[in-house]
């Protein structure tokens, strides 16, 4: 699953929770200039569903494939509950109006568009929950992400260190075994060239002594 789809599946419930939370604080029904908010009409049920959506998103950070599938099913069920709450609370009871000091027989009840916001949020949550349950096995878990960190160049670097090689040396550099062999060969060549070098630079110590002896004999003669 691409990172974009993971962001969508995790972001849709959060967005739905925000919309529901805002909608629950807005006026759903109004009569005689007195309004009832979504929390008043539903008795706080709609607010509880927003909290449940946030909890299901938090589960995605710690659960694995089976847990994500269960989380997706729970999200879909919460979405069904949101839709059911909105549909069954299109009107307020006489007791709810009386709590606001409004006569239930007063005419002209105005319904705002905020219940529709919750209805749409619930429907979208159902779709995202089903998608999450269906694609749960394609969501990478923590161990897969850790293995991905050691893939490619990073993995090659660790392998080079295990072999005792320097990963900072380029591929064109001479391997350590070859370099050590060349150094030993160079030292052997230098040791073999020392006698010829000394003979080429001048006479030896014995030659000097023989020359001095001959010169002494000539002088005495």
From TrEMBL:
Residues 143-221 are annotated as: Disordered. Residues 188-204 have a biased composition (Polar residues). The chain crosses the membrane at residues 41-63, 70-93, 113-136. Keywords: Membrane, Transmembrane, Transmembrane helix. It comes from the Bacteria. Residues 206-221 have a biased composition (Basic and acidic residues). InterPro entries: Trp_biosyn_TM_oprn/chp. The keyword Cytoplasm does not apply. Signal peptide: none annotated. The keyword Cell wall biogenesis/degradation does not apply. This is Trp biosynthesis-associated membrane protein.
């Amino acid at each position: 699953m691409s990172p974009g789809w993971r962001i969508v599946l995790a972001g849709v419930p959060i967005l739905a929770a925000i919309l529901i939370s805002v909608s629950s604080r807005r006026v759903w029904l109004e009569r005689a200039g007195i309004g009832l908010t979504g929390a008043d009409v539903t008795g706080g049920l709609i607010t509880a569903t927003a909290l449940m959506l946030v909890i299901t998103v938090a589960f995605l950070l710690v659960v694995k494939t089976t847990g994500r599938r269960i989380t997706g099913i729970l999200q879909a069920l919460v979405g069904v509950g949101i839709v059911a709450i909105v549909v069954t609370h299109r009107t307020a009871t006489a007791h709810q109006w009386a709590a606001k000091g409004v006569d239930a027989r007063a005419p002209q009840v105005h319904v705002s568009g905020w219940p529709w916001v919750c209805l749409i949020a619930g429907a979208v949550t159902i779709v995202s929950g089903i998608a999450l349950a269906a694609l749960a096995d394609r969501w990478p878990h923590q161990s897969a992400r850790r293995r991905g960190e050691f893939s490619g160049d990073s993995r090659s670097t660790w392998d080079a260190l295990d072999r005792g090689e320097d990963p900072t040396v380029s591929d064109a550099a001479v391997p350590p075994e070859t370099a050590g062999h060349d150094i030993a060969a160079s030292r052997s060549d230098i040791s073999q060239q020392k006698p010829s070098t000394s003979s080429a630079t001048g006479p030896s110590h014995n030659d000097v002594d023989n020359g001095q002896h001959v010169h002494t004999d000539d002088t005495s003669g």
